[in-house]
Design goal:
Alpha-D-Glucose-1,6-Bisphosphate, Chain A, domain 3; binds magnesium ion; TATA-Binding Protein; alpha/beta; five-stranded mixed beta sheet; 15 helices
């Protein structure tokens, strides 16, 4: 993992700005290369997209490239990324190409490639596609052997049915929950509200129209941006609220009092409930996740496996370890029995299911309050890519003597319940800091110490 050199695929597929570094010629030839990679696999390729303004044009270039290689394709249209992934897995596709830039600003777009199991292809497979592309060894079909195209109209319905088959529908319906959904003008606009209605919820939508300009609160849900969600939950006396990212694979929750949580806290609530039915786990998570997951797993005698930061790394580790559960601090939750990829609507159904299963009808805030509290702080610092290595060496030197985990960046433990992760971003000129402690004063001191170290390293390199 992480040792294969790729130039075009980043941590989460190919990303760029259409008309700049993501031209239609590039998209067509790249799709021809991807289709060549899938050429021996049975079935057509599913092509789906998110709500971005450039997505329909790019999806058609992807279609052209796929057909030009001689591979058949179906157009899945607009749907959340996990809905396309689930369709690839369950409807007999060789693989899928999803046009999306997830939570990036509106001008970006990208391609996500998934295998026949619906999961993002491995780093090695990405490198293989790049070598087909750069070697120009992609298939070029003759006029009479071009691929055939058609529409795939079942994506959303198939997704909602699949999710409902994983939860106790009648128990959820009995509770008649009220939920506020903030789809952030993103792709869950076409799925999550219908799922919740089918589960007997009263649904209140905010930023509910699919719109590639993301005029509401933007495509990236972070707690400081979710004030409207919090207000709506309180004013409608809802049971909880949920906000999705642009392509609908991540979800952040808001309790009935309007309090917004990071994904690892609600994720750990779900892990706590789901380990009752998936004894032993294991649970897969990234090194940036709260140590709360260790606490919860220990309570159930389950194992936690820590990975590098990236949803693909979690998905792949889930497959390798036959793990039922995975989570990320940014709101990614993975339910293996459905599909081992992060999925905002599946996560919403699991929260409903967990609350409905409680005989004493606990509220979300009470259910989460049963878990011990850890204090967290996160930050990001601009750092040119070429300086990252040197800055990290300086941080490591300053941390000498402490227990350091180098799975991804430097995770420095200053005592048994306090850690700080200093990690260069794989996609942006940034260094990110995540810190956590059971003691708020210790957290502040640790954060400020490393912030100082980082700033002085940035200045002196
Ligand atoms: Mg996303």
């Amino acid at each position: 993992m992480g040792t294969v050199q790729r130039k075009l695929f980043g941590t989460n597929g190919i990303r760029g700005v259409p008309g700049e570094d993501l031209g239609l010629d590039f998209i067509t030839e790249m799709s021809q290369s991807i289709a060549t990679f899938f050429s021996e696999m049975e079935g057509p390729i599913l092509i789906g997209h998110d709500v971005r303004n450039s997505s329909p044009a790019i999806a058609r270039a992807v279609l052209s490239g796929t057909l030009a290689s001689g591979k058949n394709a179906r157009e899945g249209g607009l749907a959340p990324t996990p809905a396309h992934q689930f369709a690839v897995r369950t409807l007999g596709y060789a693989g899928g190409i999803i046009v999306t830039a997830s939570h990036n600003p509106p001008k970006y777009n990208g391609l996500k490639v998934v295998g026949r199991d619906g999961v993002e292809i491995s780093r090695e497979s990405e490198a293989e596609i790049e070598s087909i592309y750069f070697g120009r060894s992609f298939k070029r079909a003759e006029w009479n052997s071009l691929g055939k195209s058609g529409k795939e109209t079942r994506v959303v319905e198939n997704y909602i049915k699949g999710i409902m088959s994983q939860v106790s529908v009648s128990k959820i319906r009995q509770r008649k929950f009220t939920v506020v959904l903030d789809v952030g003008n993103g792709a869950q606009a076409v799925a999550a509200p219908y799922l919740c209605e089918a589960l007997g919820c009263r649904v209140i939508s905010i930023n509910g129209q699919a719109d590639g300009n993301f005029p509401g609160r933007g495509p990236e849900p972070t707690p400081p941006l979710l004030g409207d969600l919090s207000e709506a939950v309180k004013s409608y006396s809802a049971d909880f609220g949920v906000a999705y990212d642009g392509d609908g694979d991540r979800s952040l929750f808001c309790d009935e009092n309007g309090k917004i949580y990071w994904g690892d806290r609600t994720g750990c609530f779900l892990v706590d409930r789901l380990l009752r039915r998936h004894e032993g786990g294991p649970v897969i998570t990234t090194v940036s996740t709260s140590q709360l997951v260790d606490w919860v797993a220990k309570k159930h005698g389950a194992k936690v496996i820590w990975t590098t930061v990236g949803s693909v790394d979690v998905s792949r580790a889930m497959i390798t370890n036959s793990a039922p559960l995975g989570l990320e601090e940014n709101g990614g939750f993975f339910y293996g029995p459905h599909i081992p990829v992060r999925d905002g609507a599946m996560t919403t159904a699991l929260v409903l299911d967990s609350l409905a299963a409680d005989r004493d009808e606990k509220s979300l805030s009470d259910a989460i309050a049963d878990l011990p509290n850890f204090f967290q702080r996160k930050g990001k610092f601009e750092c040119p890519n070429e300086k990252k290595k040197e800055v990290m060496l300086k941080v490591e030197e300053e941390a000498r003597g402490a227990k350091i985990d180098k799975t991804d960046g430097l995770k420095i433990w200053t005592d048994d319940e306090s850690w700080i992760l200093v990690r260069p971003s794989g996609t942006e000129p940034l260094i990110r800091i995540y810190a956590e402690s059971s003691d708020e004063t210790k957290l502040g001191a640790m954060y400020e110490r490393y912030e100082g170290i980082l700033r002085s390293a940035l200045h002196s390199t």
